[in-house]
Amino acid sequence: MHARAVAATTTALLGAAALLLPASGALAHEVAERPRVIAHRGASAYAPENTLAAVDRAERMGIDWVENDVQRTEDGQLVVIHDDSLRRTTDAEEVFPERAPWKVRDFTAAEIARLDAGSWFGPVYAGARVPTLEQYVRRVEHNHQKLLLEIKNPELYPGIERQTLKLLGNEGWLDRRHLTGRLVVQSFSADSIRTVHDLKPGVTTGFLGTPPVAELPGYATFTDQINPSYASVSRGYVAAVQALTGPHDRRLHVFTWTVDDASTALRAAGYGVDGVITNRPDVVRGALRGW
Ligand code: G3P
Ligand code: CA
């Protein structure tokens, strides 16, 4: 029998065994754990997305996982921002009126550091900045949180995978403690995730999307997670992903996004997902408390 088929059969048997065993120990932990709650762009319903304030807001809620988006400036600095333009989440249009369309990659890190990334969200956040990735990981570490790092638009930033890994390594995020449960690197680009895996095979990786079931075994050679939109997911799809063994000889995991209400969170949990990515981590955590 093919190795992956053996693993799938083993997983199914272990799942059946878990129903008969007390809910303690490593086996129960793997099979029956409540889905993790991941604060999407930080606790972004309550603080401006992808800022240190959003990280801190998640921390104050007791949420240990935060998600972010990493891109690169004109002068090669990694910064944390979702859109490829500065326009929506900063005052770039006001500060640099002649610089349309205000693409992140057309501004230096010093220019971006001048921008207000908080006022658009609310006056209390005036003066919040677009963090560099270095500032961001230091704050996550300081808060004892964990990071789901998204490499955003990698096609715009050749070499961003190597650069991101270098920064993570310099900041101490590629040691055993971080590699075994504190860091996941994800992207909508399979090529980008494959590159991360090839450069640093110890890193846990995630592919954002919903590949056809028939293609999942190919993904399982380089990614540990398949992270689909909740609208595209079903119990059967989650089971198909989790039946596979990934590059680290663990079953594949599923983190679904972006779930902001209790009933959808419960539905996702019912599908068996391993993580729920949310702008409202308090709502999702509350919904899943009894799960
Ligand atoms: O982590 C999942 C989610 O962030 C993917 O979509 O557009 O919010 O980066 P987006
Ligand atoms: Ca993201």
Model description:
The chain is α/β, with parallel strands linked by helices and 291 residues long. The protein has helices spanning 3-20, 25-32, 52-60, 92-95, 109-113, 133-142, 160-170, 176-179, 190-199, 216-219, 235-242, 262-271, 281-288, and strands at residues 36-39, 65-72, 78-80, 146-151, 183-187, 204-208, 225-227, 255-256, 275-278. The chain has a single domain, classed as Phosphatidylinositol (PI) phosphodiesterase (TIM Barrel, Alpha-Beta Barrel), CATH 3.20.20. Strands 1, 2, 3, 4, 5, 6, 7, 8 and 9 form a nine-stranded mixed β-sheet that branches. Helix 12 crosses helix 13 (281-288). The chain is globular and about 50 Å long. Mean pLDDT is 91; it is low at 1-30. The structure holds SN-glycerol-3-phosphate and calcium ion. SN-glycerol-3-phosphate is lined by residues 40, 67, 69, 82, 150, 208, 257, 277.
Question: Would you spell out the secondary-structure blueprint of this structure?
Answer:
Layout: H1 3-20, H2 25-32, E1 36-39, H3 52-60, E2 65-72, E3 78-80, H4 92-95, H5 109-113, H6 133-142, E4 146-151, H7 160-170, H8 176-179, E5 183-187, H9 190-199, E6 204-208, H10 216-219, E7 225-227, H11 235-242, E8 255-256, H12 262-271, E9 275-278, H13 281-288
Parallel strand pairs: 1-2, 1-9, 2-4, 4-5, 5-6, 6-7, 8-9
Antiparallel strand pairs: 2-3
Helix pairs in contact: 12-13
The chain binds SN-glycerol-3-phosphate and calcium ion.
